[in-house]
Amino acid sequence: MHATGIGDSRPLLILYPPHRPPMPQYEQLQDYRCGISGETEVIIQETGNHWRKIFSIFAKITQELLFPEEDWREVRDRRLFTEGGATALLFQQHLLETPTDRQPPVHLIGGQQFAEGFSTLPQTPQALQEDSRILRAGNVYLTPYLDYRQFPNALIATLLADIERQGFATARPSLA
User: Fold this and answer.
1) pLDDT in tens, 106-127
2) Residue 79, class by beta-carbon neighbours within 10 Å (0-12 exposed, 13-18 middle, 19+ buried)?
3) What percent of the chain is predicted at pLDDT more than 70?
4) Per-residue model confidence (pLDDT) at position 160
5) How confident is the model over 44-90, as pLDDT tens digits?
6) Residue 90 falls within a domain, yes or no?
7) Does residue 21 belong to any structural domain of this protein?
8) Which residues 6+ apart lie within 8 Å of 50 measured at CB?
9) Domain-embedded: residue 174
10) 171 in a domain, yes or no?
11) 32 has which bridge partners?
């Protein structure tokens, strides 16, 4: 299936936001390409605080799972969506298909209302805990929109604990 977005050629963590950065190169993007180091910084500078929040939350998750020796800010600004960064940002409502001979990625769908439009999920989503705002269906997580009010650090910790408990995203990328 065709992918639309930016990221590593072999992502372990994939974020599906409900919209694209409001910049022509992302609004018009129709294919998949590798991001470059510093690209998230440019998006933040051009679009403001909104995308900084999204990328900061995703960077905290990425740093904890894949680059624990680095600062999450450095992960956000230099590693997200680059080759070797093990992450992808996809602008589509279907899961990225990956070869069966590699570890399946963890899919984070940002916004449960947005998730309703996805064509397929591997199984029926279940809440992580009784009052949780995060649902999991296999290696797919339906999360609140990536904003600090909806996705505070405590909820990030809940998500990370479940990803680690499930054994997802355990193969760390080689540091380039």
Assistant:
1) 999 999 889 888 877 777 889 9
2) buried
3) 94
4) 94
5) 999 989 999 999 999 999 999 999 999 999 999 999 999 999 999 99
6) yes
7) yes
8) none
9) no
10) no
11) 5
For the sheet containing 126-127, what is the strand order?
32-33, 5-7, 87-90, 13-16, 106-110, 140-143, 135-137, 126-127
Which residues pair with residue 143 across a beta bridge? 110
**Half-sphere exposure for 52 (CA within 13 Å, toward CB):** 9
Residue 47 in tokens: 């679009």
- State pLDDT tens for residues 122-176: 778 899 976 689 999 999 999 999 998 999 999 999 999 999 998 886 666 655 4
Give residue 70's domain range: 5-166
Alpha helices in the chain (DSSP H): 24-27, 39-47, 49-66, 72-74, 112-115, 153-166
Token digits of residue 173: 């990328």
Burial track 10-38 (b if 16+ CB lie within 10 A, e otherwise): bbbbbbbbeebbeeeebeebeebeebebe
φ, ψ of residue 163 in degrees (nearest 5): -60, -45
How does DSSP assign 90-136, residue by residue? Answer: E-SSSPPP--TTSPPPEEEEE-HHHHTT-S--SS--EESSTT-S-EE
Domains in the chain: how many in total?
1
Calpha distance 28→156 (Å, rounded): 31
